[in-house]
Amino acid sequence: MSKSEDSKSVEARRGFLKLAGAGTILGGAAIAVGGNAQAEEAPDTKTSGYRETAHVKKYYELNRF
């Protein structure tokens, strides 16, 4: 390889790394913004907390709780 080819490959590598770094930052920002919007919409359940359903009762029965 000649010096001019070598410097071109170094420049190409640097350009790629700059774009990869920018993509990482933008991807993280997109996740942060999108994650907050989803978290606000999630609590649609009207009842929360412990419910003793049939399968829970069966588990208690089999394990003698």
Question: Concise description?
Answer:
The protein is mostly helical and 65 residues long.
Question: What can you see in these coordinates?
Answer:
- With 65 residues, the chain is mainly α.
- Helices cover 75% and strands 0% of the residues.
- The chain is built from two helices and no strands.
- The protein has helices at residues 3-41, 54-63.
- It is rod-shaped.
- The mean pLDDT is 77.
Strand content: under 5%
Based on CA atoms alone, the radius of gyration comes out at 27 Å
Please mark out the parts with pLDDT under 50 across 5 or more consecutive residues, or reply none: none
Q: How would you sum up the major sheet?
A: none
Structural key phrases:
65 residues; rod-shaped; 2 helices; single chain; mainly alpha; 75% helix
Please give the structural blueprint.
Blueprint: H1 3-41, H2 54-63
